[in-house]
């Protein structure tokens, strides 16, 4: 039963720690955005990538976490998402945040900004 429970893939919410924000753009249009928080696998800057002899993010903990959680959903829904950008917002540890952002960019093949809070 435990393996069955752990292998369950939710339809709508694949990664805990997300917040919804109601935002307004410069044209006074309101929409809800998802801010994915507290998912960065801390300590990855000190862990070598597995089986990664060229200088890419594949094989890192960040990349694996993205690939196995919210990344597939973002790729699947890409054409349905409004125009916009991705960003990693951090309050400390720029090295962790930039590594995480680079892996997001590599996995999604999109530009990802790193923004200090």
Notes on the structure:
This protein has four helices and four strands, in the order H-E-E-H-H-E-H-E. Strand 3, helix 4 (about 95-110) and strand 4 form a beta-alpha-beta unit. By secondary structure, the chain is of the alpha+beta class. Helix content is about 30%, strand content about 20%.
Q: What does the secondary structure layout of this molecule look like, with pairings?
A:
Elements: H1 2-7, E1 18-24, E2 30-36, H2 61-67, H3 71-76, E3 86-90, H4 94-108, E4 112-116
Parallel strand pairs: 3-4
Antiparallel strand pairs: 1-2
In brief, what are we looking at here?
By secondary structure, this protein is α+β, with helices and mostly antiparallel strands. The protein contains four helices and four strands, in the order H-E-E-H-H-E-H-E.
Question: What's the average pLDDT?
Answer: 78
- What kind of sheet is the major sheet? 2 strands, antiparallel
Q: Main sheet: which strands, in order across?
A: 1-2
The radius of gyration computed from the alpha-carbon positions, rounded to a whole number of angstroms, is 16 Å
Low-confidence stretches: none
Overview features:
two-stranded antiparallel sheet; 117 residues; alpha+beta; globular; two-stranded parallel sheet; 4 helices
